[in-house]
Amino acid sequence: MADTAELTTLGQTSLLAGCEGNRLLAALRPSDLAQLAPYLKSMSLTAGAVLFEAGEDIHTTIFPCYSTMASLLVVTRDGDEIEVASIGREGAIGGIVSAGFKPAYGRAIIRIPGAAIAIPTVRLEEAKIRSPALHDLFSRYADVLLAQMMQSSACNALHSIDQRMCRWLLSTHDRANQSTIRLTQETLADMLGVQRTTVTAVAKALQDEGLIRTGRGKIEILDRAKLERRACECHGQVEAHFQRLLPEMKV
User: Fold this and answer.
1) Cα–Cα distance between 156 and 145 in angstroms, integer?
2) 21 φ, ψ to 5°?
3) C-alpha angle with apex 43: 42 to 46, nearest 5 degrees?
């Protein structure tokens, strides 16, 4: 894990407050949270921090809190990369689909900085063995994460860049829980796998229509309803699947 991630052991009071910032942890039964509590650590993650690279063993599972967001990327031999999943306060990253510290297939990087909670992956797996309810919750979340990856693959192949950009803005708006998204257009271009000039042109068109407002290192959502109409169906499909499989997760 990058040295830009600062870890400190959580006290009991800050533990409860921190876990409320992540919807997956907040959905745990008190008895299951108590199993994990001794091993949880708080993190302060900076933009660009690499959580793991492709081929590295996963030893830590990370729960982004509040507006913190990470990207899971596929990287080619030429160094090109594209986002296949984004993870925010609704979930976790690291050993989720593989259910353990098996080698990572892609790169995980922090896009929007902020707080997070970490746990050794082996401790999480041990708790899942002891608690069927905990195992079931994380299995359902793994299904949702896999569905997002599958939908992203279809979206990247079939939908226009303006539809894809609108989809990404909607999903990030959901996670950030605020109208302003702290992100540069260059970073957004990297995530979408296109040139920055393409993102700039699409952003200008959306701004001219009154959907967003761009500024230095930020994008503000002005009209979410219109943005939803401009986006492809992918955001709605993934969100509907999430609600079906994880109805107990608080917004």
Assistant:
1) 16
2) -80, -5
3) 165
